Amino acid sequence: MLPMLVAVAIGQMTYVVALGQGGFFFSSLLLPRRISGRLIMGSILIALGMGFYLMGGTVAPLPVVAVIFTFFVALNLSFLTSWSIGGPIALSIVMIYTAGLNTGSPEKAAANFLAFALVMGWATLVSVLPVWQPMMPPAPARPPTNAELAEQGFRMGIGTSLALAISYIFEFAKIGWSVSAVGSVVRFDQDMSRKRAMARLLGTLGGALIAGFLLVRLDSVTTLVLIGAFFAVLNGLYKKAKVGQMPLFYTATILILYSLNDIESGKDLAMLRLAYNLVGIAVAAFVVFYPFPMLTKRLRKGEQAPQE
């Protein structure tokens, strides 16, 4: 989070949200054991991840195109989870893509691109220091089959596209927030999806309450930014605990950062964040729990067919 603090210290507030969001996002990810793995992870985020960010900003002004692209982004990232190198962070790129959608235009996405790339590069360099304890994601009870990856991608693609369409229809101020909620919830395992949906709901509610309270009580930009950085530290310290596995601190920090230019609007922004995420969670629940019987039957039948 240091680049964000430096930007505030020198009075450059234009890219504070991008720097803070990028730094917090990186700090919430896994940390491979090997230095080479950390460098590869950073490289994937800077190159592949930022490419998805620019894609989101480019298609955002074109609703029909954006909805179609969102489906294929989710579908393809689902298949990438089977990639031994980039698989553990593949679905996290959905969040980067939705950040691009939130910019609303190619121009704004391009303007923020270097700030995101800078903070991702800085975070990668910091991560290679040997003082950090590695943290790998918990291994699944069994690896998902190709059919399950296809089903996961289809569900996520339908869900994210539907959430984005709703965002356009009802003119959400941040069209990517409900999409991000779907992307963080839907997984190939229904029990895992249920747990992630509850974590997203509780984390968003708690984060909105924390941010709303702080924005009402404090009017110092510097203090609010320092609190956001502190939340990033707390999120890292409690990453293995339940409180660190839900977007509690992340939601609070994002709302604080988005409100820095107009602190008075922070309470309204917190309510919007909560409302948009509720839409996303509801859509995610629909695509997870509705069985898509014909599709599922065909996918699994094809997976079980003997190879000639």
Notes on the protein architecture:
The chain is mainly alpha-helical and 308 residues long. The protein has one domain. The chain has helices at residues 2-9, 16-27, 35-59, 63-80, 87-90, 93-103, 106-127, 146-169, 177-185, 190-217, 221-237, 248-258, 266-289, 293-304. α2 runs parallel beside α11 (221-237), α3 runs antiparallel to α7 (106-127) and α6 (93-103) runs antiparallel to α9. It is globular, with a radius of gyration of 19 Å. The chain starts with a helix and ends with a helix. The model has no long low-confidence stretch (mean pLDDT 87).
Main attributes of the structure:
308 residues, mainly alpha, 14 helices, 73% helix, globular
Provide the structure class. Answer: mainly alpha
The share of residues in helices is over 70%
Report the count of strand segments.
0
Mean pLDDT: 87
The H/E string reads HHHHHHHHHHHHHH
Number of domains: 1
Largest sheet at a glance? none
Catalogue the unreliable spans. none
Shape: globular
List the helices and strands and how they pair.
Blueprint: H1 2-9, H2 16-27, H3 35-59, H4 63-80, H5 87-90, H6 93-103, H7 106-127, H8 146-169, H9 177-185, H10 190-217, H11 221-237, H12 248-258, H13 266-289, H14 293-304
Short description:
The protein has helices at 2-9, 16-27, 35-59, 63-80, 87-90, 93-103, 106-127, 146-169, 177-185, 190-217, 221-237, 248-258, 266-289, 293-304.
